[in-house]
Amino acid sequence: MARRRSSPESLVKILLLTHKLPYPLHDGYNLHNWNYVRRLHTEHEIHLVSLGRREDLPDEVAGWFASVHTVPARPDPVPSLPHKLLHVFDLDEFFDRDPAVVRAVDAVLAEHEIDVVWTSGAKMLVYSERLGLPTLGDIADEAAKEALHDLKTASGAPWRAPTLLRAVRGFVNTWRFQRRFLGHARVCTVVSQIDEATLARNCPGLDVRVVPNGVDAQFYAPQLGEDGRPVLVFEGAMDFRPNVEGIVAFFDDTLPLIRAQRPDVEVVLVGKRPAPEVAALDGPGVTVTGFVDDVRPYVDRAAVFVCPLRRGAGIKNKILQAWAMEKPVVATPVSCGGLELQDGTNILVRESPADFARGVLELLDDPARRASLGKAGRRTVLERYSWERQARRLAGILEEVADKAAVTV
After folding, report:
1. What are the tens digits of pLDDT across the range 166-206?
2. Torsion angle of the four alpha carbons 407, 401, 388, 10, in this order, in degrees rounded to the nearest 10
3. Range of 289's domain?
4. Could you give the residue ranges of the DSSP H alpha helices within 25-181?
5. Number of domains the chain is built from
6. Cα-only R_g, the chain
7. How many CB atoms lie within 10 A of CB 280?
8. What's the pLDDT tens digit per position in 51-103?
9. Judging by DSSP bridges, how do beta strands 45-51 and 208-210 pair with one another?
């Protein structure tokens, strides 16, 4: 007997699986989930199973869900070296499958007839595979490309067997995981065309759709603006390796070229958990803030927002937020993956250190140009990157995935 949709036509009953609670809004994963649930819960019924502690979820946010089941995240095991070597390519060792999460999922299914499973992030696909329910694999950022970069970096570094082994394991297991676990998803969503192309190559025949990130343009509205000082701002998690590598390279290769012309340039690095090599940059003319409750006052100081990343996946929320605040942005091509941009109109895209430095210096010397780029960036956000727009896209895909399984008995 084929499965029948349990819900009225206008309502989809959704089981959302997340590896973190969608709060606080301190990283892209939480922003992604919080903004979508905030908009989808008024039209659909959403049941949440998440790693985390229920008491950490504000009542207002919990109220968006028809039910909330939380499972405390268990500590990562510390296996012995022989165990590591014996299980180096064991997917069950690489991606955790917690029996407590399985029980929580089963508890929801025992009480509610679910139309579609929405897995947020690749990690949760291990829990939806066995259910036999129509599934949306909302993986956002494709991981194999990053794993391949780590492998190439490890291969080119001085010989360190543990580092190389971790990189080989990461790449092989990420690729194998995608081939094994993405196949049960009716549709997979990613945030950029680059991620779509990579995933389609790794998993031929997979239905991959692009739903870009959004930004709250009202929250990230223009504020007081720069005060005339040559301040460069970068914002992001400061222990995230692509951010760390990009910032260190910027200080090594690009900032000296800028300061050769403008020695008064200040740099503000905003973000939680600075890695040691980032923390060490703090000093005269450089501020490393560490965690801040609100990034807006810091971004607001920027004469130029810089995004000098040399690797990374997905759409950079940091650029969307800077655009929304009417900040002129200079970014490397890899920082702009997935963005609909016009170089010279709403952003300056510069790759080499010399070109990047020239782009920053041009803007520092031209207030009118800075203002023009900033206003064009905000227009781009308002026209293409509102969370309302992206939520409509995601809702349509969830409804489509559910309807593909909806038949009359």
Report:
1. 655 555 566 677 777 888 999 999 988 888 888 888 888 89
2. 10
3. 231-384
4. 28-40, 59-62, 81-86, 91-94, 99-111, 125-128, 144-156, 161-181
5. 2
6. 22
7. 13
8. 999 999 999 999 999 999 999 988 766 555 554 555 555 556 557 789 999 99
9. unpaired
Q: Strand, coil or helix: what is 408?
A: coil
User: pTM score, two decimals?
Assistant: 0.82
Provide the CATH number for the domain around residue 29.
Answer: 3.40.50.2000
How would you class 264 by CB atoms within 10 Å of its CB: exposed for 0-12, middle for 13-18, buried for 19 or more?
exposed
Longest CA pairwise span in the chain (Å): 74
Torsion of CA 274, 275, 281, 283, to 10 degrees: 40
Q: What would the pLDDT profile of 389-398 be if each residue is shown by its tens digit?
A: 999 999 999 9
Same domain, 55 and 180: yes
Distance of CA 334 to the CA centre of its chain: 14
Spatial CB neighbours of 148, under 8 Å, sequence gap ≥ 6: 171
- CA 238 – CA 232 distance, rounded (Å): 16
For residue 21 the two structure tokens come to 């609670």
**Beta strands, E only, 198-258:** 208-210, 231-235
Q: How many residues does the chain have?
A: 409
Quick count: other Cβ atoms within 10 Å of Cβ 252? 10
